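For consistency, the fold was encoded as tokens, which produced the following:
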Amino acid sequence: MKYNIYNFVTSFYFVLGISLVITMIGLITWYEPLFAFGLIAFTLESLYVLIHAWIINPICSYNTKIIRKGLRRPLLQIPFCLPRLLDTDKIYIAKTIIPNKSMFTGEGHINKLFGFSDNKLFEFNQVHNNSFRFGWKSKDDKAIEIYAYYYVNGKRYGKFIDNLLFGNSYILTIEKQSDAVVFKVYDTQNNNYVLKYYVDYKSERRFGYQLGIFYGGEPRAPHKIKFKMW
């Protein structure tokens, strides 16, 4: 997604900001029509943002996401890109990614791309109990290492899958089946699956939420990192 003037003017933040300014001007000047117009516009735009984040497009799947230096998440995930509640009996998440050189950081920990948690109802923020994500590690200036990164009953695993070359396109999928979670990496250049990785897993839990991009572990991004993923 290119960040140009058109995208900015039509963005959530711009419309919310303008409607809030109009509301405040109406409040300060005691001009009721202006206040009412700004308040209605702000309310409607806020509802649209929430519907967009939770239902239409969870985790804000714009083509390009950016983690700024010193942060762990893209700014677009804070606060409007809220995690979507899932029925974890029926999970199939697929995303296309094109790795790039900004993902080379020289650090050896596994970072997170996307996935899901598997919880009981109202058991939120339990990502370290049962969750499944694609992770990536900085390899060199030509590729990243991709991992099946998951927790089962509080135990953490990081299983290497393959190297993904910068500039190439791959489709990553996570699917929860009746007795397993399956990670798949599809190489679009060669039109074949690089690898399928199976995790034996059976759960009667019915709820969870989608998990998005996260840098770390403990470290924060050492420089600006761009993710072309949708």
About this structure: The CA atoms of residues 25 and 31 lie 8 Å apart. The chain has two domains: 5-54, 62-229. The two ends are 10 Å apart (CA to CA). The longest helix spans residues 32-56.
